[in-house]
Amino acid sequence: MKTDLLQTPITYLKGVGPNRAQVLQSELGIATFDDLLNFFPNRYIDKTRYYKISELERNAAEVQIIGKIIHIKTVEQKKGRRLVAKFIDDTGEMELVWFRGHKWIKEQLQLNVPYVIFGRTNWFNGVFSMPHPEMELLSSHEQGLRIHMQPIYPSTEKLSNKGITNRVISHMVQQLFAETRGVFRETLSPDVIGELKLVSRSEALFNIHFPQDQKKLARAQFRLKLEELFFVQIQLISKNLLRKKKIRGLPFERVGEHFNTFYQEYLPFELTGAQQKVIKEIRADLGSNAQMNRLLQGDVGSGKTIVALMSMLLALDNGYQSCLMAPTEILANQHYNSLKEIIGDMNINIALLTGSVKKSERKGIHESLEDGSLHILVGTHAVLEHKVQFNNLGLAIIDEQHRFGVAQRSKLWHKNDIPPHILVMTATPIPRTLAMSLYGDLDISVIDELPPGRKPVKTVHRYDTNRLKVFRFLKDEIKKGRQVYIVYPLIQESQALDYKDLMDGYESISREFPLPEYRISIVHGQMKSEDKDIEMARFVKGETQIMVATTVIEVGVNVPNATVMIIESAERFGLSQLHQLRGRVGRGGDQSYCILMTGHKLTAEAKTRIETMTATNDGFEIAEVDLRLRGPGDLMGTQQSGLLNLKIADIVRDNDILKTARFYALRILQEDPDLALEKNLPIRQTYAELLRHRNIWNYIS
Ligand SMILES: Nc1ncnc2c1ncn2[C@@H]1O[C@H](COP(=O)(O)OP(=O)(O)OP(=O)(O)O)[C@@H](O)[C@H]1O
């Protein structure tokens, strides 16, 4: 068939008038034949099974029964009239009920003739009933085309009041297959189809809408998921190739004095193998002629800061400035302080720029940035302001990407004529394949090894009623010279309430841990930054032993002497947040603990979260569970969610298919690298046509 036919507006389909077309388009995004063809059912009802009335269960279920009507009556009620038919088989009786269309239905129904009925059962007052059943005479049911598995299309229940029922969609799809004769252009090349033993596209599309049996359905689903993921991968990888080809980067050819001196004389510990590997990857990127766009993933406490610093030293050795951006002031402060400490008396100029830096100081920073005398700028998003002009920004490092949008990332590009190299650091572990899908435009490095001597944090769950015992434990730890965090949840909608929780907690902790033996810091969002800094600094220096805080301390805070993390109302936190918080302890050589406090009432999901935390310290494992609980959209916020707007594949569940799809996408692009660039002369007919057809060129050019 001609491709054009699939672009036919849906109104050309029999039975679709302008009104219906309007609803289809606005509610389901179906405007053309092609849209309808790709509107897949989200579940199927097995129609190979016939139930007996005696087998019905009280929980509502969709069932198919053979029997006959022996009696019909109209029942008048306050709410309106109902038509009720008594339906029997050789095992029992039930009621069929209609609330609308009485007259017509009554005329149609035949008494004492075998019917096959289908619908959802209800159990009420000792009787099973089925409202508005689908009915067919057994005689014609046996003759007609048997539907083995009935497709159920998404949203049809919601739209039935607008005339878009499941049956309507089913009929439209049937009509579509009739008009196109069910022959659709193949989109994958014969070698892929052969190697993976895929069914053809036409067969897959038929079986996704009208599966003949479970096996055929499974093969159709596999084929269509693979195809979908394959094209997403082609798109992402092409984007990556294009970027490398097109975007000239600043070549950092030298490894010079700063890097070497630091490495030989200042590095406070030996790098882990993973850190070395990642630094090598970064060096290779910086030395090539293309712009680096790299995502550095490393679990909490894995040692990303040193990698960031050494990358910035490479920039400096090549005569370029760099900046390090953090999502919060506390974190920016901390990065600044720890960088300053690590570089000691090396001849490197470094400054901190956040919202609370004074105007007079700011001016100095702006000037030294512009004249090039400032080498490294650490800051919050204040760095992105237009006023902040660099002399020659060569490397921008962004910590905790998920708090900065892609748009902000691109702002950095314009801080130099040739865009600076970009390194995005994240401690949110993202399963690798998902990361590939989300960050197809970034290369990925992973620090998959913790510094030596770390002991896994022991995590336990305690109920609020055990608080006194927990306090005793804290006192023991503090006696040993350790420090502890006590964290309260923060929910944006109700800051006042959270504040109250925190203050109540602070009061009771102050009573339990009185001066002068115990000293407590408190940090929360409503404090002035200066005060936060002072409190934070006291804790870092060890002047206070207890830090009472909201989640402002969630990311990046590094106090190796802190060994206990207590999380209050732990059920109110998400998994990745819990993992981040726990990452604040276990950063030194001492055994550390994380105590999750909750009330007794927990939802099933909260239980899963708590159990996961107590069962494992592995950030990647936790991320997998988190993904299952929340879905990928949530994990990354809305950014790039368009890419994940998949019709049939599920990035988490279909991970294996994703890997296969990626393998083939890589292979085709390796064989024909020009495919990613070439717009007019497709080498591989089938792919190239499809790439164009799916508007992939629009994405990548
Ligand atoms: N190779 C190493 N050997 C020993 N200690 C190390 C090593 N690398 C880093 N550290 C130390 O481990 C701690 C954590 O490092 P860092 O703060 O860089 O972690 P991170 O990856 O930024 O973690 P987070 O995302 O949780 O902030 C620091 O105290 C750091 O000095």
Task: Outline the structure in words.
This protein is α/β, with parallel strands linked by helices and 701 residues long. Among the domains are: 1-40 and 166-183, no CATH class; 43-151, Nucleic acid-binding proteins (OB fold (Dihydrolipoamide Acetyltransferase, E2P), Beta Barrel); 257-286 and 303-426, P-loop containing nucleotide triphosphate hydrolases (Rossmann fold, 3-Layer(aba) Sandwich), CATH 3.40.50; 458-616, P-loop containing nucleotide triphosphate hydrolases (Rossmann fold). 42% of the residues lie in helices and 18% in strands. It is built from 27 helices and 22 strands. The protein has a 7-stranded mixed beta sheet. Helix 20 (529-541) links the parallel strand 19 and strand 20 (546-549). Helix 12 packs parallel to helix 13 (304-317) and helix 22 runs antiparallel to helix 23 (619-630). The chain is globular. The relative contact order is 0.09. Mean pLDDT is 83; it is low at 402-406, 633-643 and 678-701. The structure holds adenosine-5'-triphosphate. Residues 466-633 form the Helicase C-terminal domain. Pfam families: DEAD, Helicase_C, RecG_dom3_C, RecG_wedge. One of its GO terms (molecular function) is hydrolase activity. It catalyses: Couples ATP hydrolysis with the unwinding of duplex DNA by translocating in the 3'-5' direction; ATP + H2O = ADP + phosphate + H(+).
